[in-house]
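Researcher: Please translate sequence to structure tokens.
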Amino acid sequence: MDVGILALQGDVTEHARALEAVGVRPCPVRRREDLSGLDGIVLPGGESTTLGLLLGSSGLRQPLGKELHAGLPVFATCAGLILLAASVRDGRRDQWSYEVVDVAVRRNGYGRQTQSFETQLTVAGVAGGPLPAVFIRAPVIEHVGAGVEVLAALARSDPDGPLSTPPSAVGRSEPVLCRQGAALVAAFHPELTADRRLHALFVSMIREREL
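Model: Translation complete:
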């Protein structure tokens, strides 16, 4: 199985190691020709506006969009989630997205670099107990459409904790891992931990689609 990784910027090496660990071949995608023959693709964490600009300058923006809307399985983390969202809030004037997944996200919704944190998440359908999740300048998923399945959520419970939660938000639970059709999106960075269960879940999604 060949799974592409958008290799213009971001956590490319980390995703490649994770994919290799679950038994598939990672294929860097830098040009439109690299999309040929892929079974799926990963859109890594990084900087969403930079990725958007590089997709345009590389000639990948339209060809990748065509593949995504045709149903190419995709696993998007952090900035990759922003690229797939139906709506992006607090973006630049030239911010754009592929609108593949029916979610609304707010850029840097969990704070800036200094407010990064790690937590444990329980994921629906994933055995083995909670898995570690690293949040770095992570987007907040503020709305999910009717066709989106929420696999994991993060509770805002401590106004003085690492999330810098405003008192009005205490007790709110926010989706952080969602699935819609062939798309799996995470607000965090699973590739920055040694836990490979989400990459294995993505591979199982590809295999289900091939049956």
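Researcher: Any highlights?
Model: The CA atoms of residues 103 and 144 lie 4 Å apart.
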